Amino acid sequence: MSLTAHFIDNDWKLNKKMLNFFRVSSCRGDANGKAILMCLRDWGIDKVFTITVDNASTNDDAISFLKNRFNLFGMGILRGKYLHLKCISDIINLIVSDVLNEFNDLVARVRGAVIYVRQSSSSLQKFKECVEIQEIQSKNFLCLDVSTKWNSTYLMLDVAQKFERAFERFEDEDPFYKDELLLGDGVPDSNDWVNVRRLVLFLQPFYELPFKVAGSFCVTSNIFLGEICEVYRLLRNWQSSSDAEFSTMAKRMKEKYDKYWGNVGKMNVLLYVAVVLDPRNKLDFVEFCFTVMYAEEEAEVMTKEVKEAVFELLYDYKRMMELSQSKQVSDRSQMSQKTQAFGDTNLLQKKKRGLSSDFKKYRESRCTEQKTDLDKYLSQELVDDEDDDDDEFNILDWWKSNSRKFPVLSHLAHDVLAIPISTATSKSAFNTGRCELDAYRGSLTSKVVQSLVCARDWLRRPSHLNPTYFEEEMEEIDKLDLEFSKIELESALD
């Protein structure tokens, strides 16, 4: 299990630190929950806003266990109401896998054709000659997919459909091509290639989506709603296509989409709160997306739920800030009383001035109490970034500059914008670029693996103070890794 902390520091920089990489003793949810709780205690972490996990029943059980413990120890916000966040990349994989399962035969025929072409140098050379004769221009060449990774299947289909005319000519040039493929799933025909193009068109937005929402060092929680709304618009438009088969495929794809994202109750409302905290969008954009994706009455109900969630969170954050401030005032007051001289002849005048000052603060609070941070924030004009790319707008820099203007709301933004909506980065943390473990790595104990993985995670990231990318030093890191492996192996032999 990999446990990674995502947080925004006092300088409004997003940080990601792997806390642990360890073997769990059981697949049960409560066992995983206990392991996570122990890791948090080891690190001295006493506040947790959300936990992003893959879509699995054991993870649901783990979150339930942690919610109970957090409530007991006062570690959560709003008694863990928004603690559980399901990995968006995982949901995307489930949607696409459901779709591809309906086109297994089509994909198998294309895969068989690619395998045949690439199985020998002679067939590959003959196919390249067909490509030249047909004058096909492409930067990419035929690639075989990994059947368990749908993104590679998408790339295989996308590239293969560009060589349709080359495959047709190759069938005439190679006498064994058709016979061998007919022993399996068959030969892709013209109708298959039409369906492949349709499928590629459907898969493209889902292929691009994980790259946008799985960033490690950029805020992603505020862009997700806009991305899935755009996918919804595409599917809805495709359903109205004059191509009957294309329209039918769009309807089937839309059913898969609705299965996971069709009900707001299935989503963590913090994903919508994050959009509200984006000064380019705010609540208006949330309401707009809801009207695009749902019926009018349902959109109104959902917008109301988001508003209530923001107010509920702000109330809780304001309460926590007031408690913290009152404690600081109390501490200062006690110090002042200890140093105050009892014989101060101006004590009465000071008390009067203190009363006057308190009355002034009281009037100011009464004048502004009806206008909260949220009201002031929403009443401001949206930040106009039409002239800039989305990548150039830094939402954290904006909140850093405006944190004094919205003291309570900025505290909420500080936590909400740090939420990772995908666990994909955690899954790739031990990717060494090799396809298999060598003899030394295979002999590592779990403790050494944990040390190497966590150290690598901390070293690889660019420093905010000194932007050095450790990817450039990977050869040295690999040498160190190998030396650690040898030491561990020698220790085991001793």
TrEMBL record:
Domain hAT-like transposase RNase-H fold span(s) in chain numbering: 217-317
Domain HAT C-terminal dimerisation: 373-459
Protein's UniProt keywords contain Membrane: no
Membrane-spanning residues: none
Pfam families registered for this protein in UniProt: Dimer_Tnp_hAT (PF05699), hAT-like_RNase-H (PF14372)
Domain of life: Eukaryota
GO molecular function: DNA binding; protein dimerization activity
UniProt entry keywords in alphabetical sequence: DNA-binding
UniProt entry tagged with the keyword Nucleus: no
UniProt protein name: Zinc finger BED domain-containing protein RICESLEEPER 2 isoform X1
Organism of this sequence: Theobroma cacao
